[in-house]
Amino acid sequence: KEVFRVLKDEWGAGFQSFISEKVVAVAGDVSSEDLGIVDLHLKEEILKEADLVLNFAAITKFDERYDVTLGTNTSGALHVLNFSKKCAKIKLLVHVSTAYVCGEAPGILMEKPLTLGKAARGRSNVVEVWNGENELVAKRLHQLHSQNLTDKEITSAMQNLGLERAHYYWWPNTYTFTKAMAEMVMVESKGDLPLVIIRPTMVTSTLKDPFPGWLEGVRTVDGVLVSYAKGRLKCLAHKPEVVLNLIPADIVVNAIIGAVGMAFAEQHLGLIYHLSSSMKNPIKVSDIHDFMFTFFTKHPWRDRHGKEVQVAKLTNFSSMACFHVYMAIRFQLPLKV
């Protein structure tokens, strides 16, 4: 991958041997017990030698199937926790979550564990809630299969179930809900295992390391930028003064390394770290708008035929009423015609 370009340039022909001494890739699946590691010898070696576990595994789509997201984001996190407990030399488990597990609330969000009452609507045991969700998923899947529905229909039904359950517990989408449950289940089940939770906001391309601008795929706000660059996004309903919480990928990595170092040195026993830019270096939606127009005017996107795509400033709306009128004239009326 392109992210390794700097190392490849530095090591040249010796790159592969250098990497093979540092990194071993192990096939597995966090949604399975013991992380789905089938090589028993390798699993025993990991359990014997590993002193640090970092869990980045997650499904980040907001509306993925509930059974799939629950299996990876919540059950998977618990599987990583249980596996880490078996490691003879374990010193620390780092779980990468998201700042949006905090839901929607005014003011400054503190670096504190999520409260069980918020997730469980008055129940005292979040594990009970999580087990209940697993039972609900199994029951709904059985019902759907018994109706002889197509795979597409089952997928749609499970996506709707995830959003329905998330909204019931006051989270905006399936992703944040399952990540929030993961945090609560881990905190309640960790026992004596040292646990650090990292909560980044919207992760964007790298600021500096290994080089500026690297990103794996299109994520979060990048979808808006790409749609605009391709000339598909003509308007955006937004408040120009709203601050976006963006954080470069390498800053997130640096913060994780710092948190690990502090924990290993026992200089800081903090449990949760928020990684955000809005307090120190806020960026407004209007700034993003201006940056997009300036950049893609100087460096236009080229379509599949090599033709440059010309962009214009996005249409702004003074009210939602104006937005609805625009949508009716620009899209609904032509579609009816």
TrEMBL record:
PANTHER family recorded: ACYL-COA REDUCTASE-LIKE PROTEIN, PUTATIVE-RELATED (PTHR11011:SF84), MALE STERILITY PROTEIN 2-RELATED (PTHR11011)
Species this chain originates from: Linum tenue
Catalytic function, reaction form: a long-chain fatty acyl-CoA + 2 NADPH + 2 H(+) = a long-chain primary fatty alcohol + 2 NADP(+) + CoA
Record carries keyword Transmembrane helix: no
EC numbers on record: 1.2.1.84
Keywords assigned: Lipid biosynthesis, Lipid metabolism, NADP, Oxidoreductase
Cleavable signal peptide: none
Stated family: Belongs to the fatty acyl-CoA reductase family.
GO biological process, one term: suberin biosynthetic process
Name of the protein described by the UniProt record: Fatty acyl-CoA reductase
Highest taxon, organism lineage: Eukaryota
GO terms for MF: alcohol-forming long-chain fatty acyl-CoA reductase activity; alcohol-forming very long-chain fatty acyl-CoA reductase activity
